[in-house]
Amino acid sequence: MKTIKMKNILFIFLFAILTNVSCQQKDKKMETASAEKNDITTALYDSYNTYKETTLGKRRIKHNDIQPLINQFKNKQGYTVKRVGTSIEGRSLSLISVGSGPTSVFLWSQMHGDEPTATQAIFDILNFLDSDDFKTEKAEILNNLTLHFLPMLNPDGAEVFTRRNTLGIDINRDALDLQSPEGSTLKRVRDSLQADFGFNLHDQSTYYNAERTDKPATVSYLAPAYNYEKDINEVRGNAMKIIVFMNSIIQKYAPGQVGRYNDDFEPRAFGDNIQKWGTSAILIESGGYYNDPEKQEIRKLNYVSILSAIYTISNQSYTDIDIADYEKIPENDRKLFDLKIEEVQYELLGNTYTLDLGIHRNEIDKKGNNDFWYRSAIADQGDLSTYYGYETFNAKGYTVKSGKVYPNIINSTADFLKLDALALLKQGYAYIPVANRTAGLVASPIPLHMVGVNYKSVENLRLSVGINPTFFLEKNGALEYAVINGFLINLKDNKGYFKNALILN
To answer: Measured in whole angstroms, how far is the alpha carbon of residue 170 from the centre of its chain?
Structure first.
């Protein structure tokens, strides 16, 4: 009995030692992976401008803008460029491949024509891969992985900066019928590659926020479900692990600004089906970032996080990440305004009410779809205490006052542009009649509305959802702030973000 007892004690002791060693090895492996991530991520972030593709500086990029960038890889050693399809209007769809490793990683962007942030980041990544820097890390990536990039899947939509293709369908809901040549190309390429990992790259509305916070969902993720039960197999689990890894990177540069999409199964969607077909599908959505209308900071975050994710796939350091951390990422919510005005006093029919105002600045494309102007609107009003703003102004003690029409008619657009806008705003003028307006001008570049000579403003402004937010904020009998086309301007120091006012008849 004594011998048996001693053996049991010895077994327990050895088991404890082995378990402790195993745990220490696992912890050490995770610490090493974390250190690797931090080292390369910081270096990628700090050196980004070296690789940024400078010919792509605005969101409204088109097929012709990226063709020279694609063509330069046709004759580069180690790269292959193939025409893999054609859009409805005849624009080429190209696949750029690099690397010789057994693990296949497929990245495609701009399935929706007005979602170009990641397309720009793809060319930044290609510039990085083509450089002489980070030789050790790139050798590990390209020896272990083969990378395939399909930028701008919907070039016809990109041409007119719209979500859908020329057929008028959402390509991302065409995974079953494959009616669109663009969707058919995506399916055929995925199948031919039998990709192990797939990065499905999109943009989302800037009005999404991380749930129950005032933080914009600058980047949102989803590891799509492959069935209604939302089961997690190895394929989907690997996508979740990569997303947890990428979230940790974004938190370093945009803390709290990450959201997670609802994972209800959508049987028509490409992401859900690609997961089902055996590729670990990682959906990335570029949202909003304060004072970044062209999403160039978000482009940088795409570059850093995607490259870091590619690196962790190449060395398989993601494998020990806890899937449970995926559910800890806050869900996406949609409770952001460009401008939120809180607790403003509003006089209506002899009574005074207290309102919150939520304002959206809606983009209107200029002719040619290369640039845009804003036509703002009140998106909601009332109690908006559970909503947030990129810019929030507490207007307690301020009263809404209507803007006035300037009594003198200005002769021309040139004369209008010479006006002292701040001086006129301080007098309560928001609308300036101009007799001879320049043809083709779509918006006013100064914070005064240009109107026709017979324009009549409403003496007592009636606030309602949908109207253009133009009014003044008065306190103790003095006008202290102007809201012109949804832009808040401090009349004391003329400070405030502004892009354009309107041209009205």
So the answer is: 18
The model's pTM is 0.91
Q: Name the CATH code of domain 19-98+120-333 (choices 3.30.70.1560, 3.40.630.10, 3.30.559.10, 3.40.640.10).
A: 3.40.630.10
CA distance 57 to 62: 12
Give the relative orientation of helices 135-144 and 296-315 as an angle to the nearest 10 degrees: 60
Task: Delimit the domains of the chain by residue range.
Answer: 19-98+120-333, 336-504
Question: Using an 8 Å Cβ cutoff, are 266 and 176 in contact?
Answer: no
Q: For the chain, which ranges sit under pLDDT 50?
A: 1-33, 35
Contact between residue 363 and residue 382 where contact means Cβ atoms under 8 Å apart: no
Is 67:145 a contact under the CB 8 Å cutoff? no
The gap from C-alpha 75 to its chain's centroid, in whole angstroms, comes to 33
User: pLDDT digits over 135-182, tens only?
Assistant: 999 999 999 999 999 999 999 999 999 999 999 999 999 999 999 999
Query: Whole-angstrom Cα distance, residue 351 to residue 45?
Result: 55
Q: What is the pLDDT of residues 458-495, one digit of tens each?
A: 778 999 999 999 999 999 999 999 999 999 999 999 88
Q: Report how far residue 331's alpha carbon sits from residue 222's, in angstroms, rounded to the nearest whole number.
A: 10
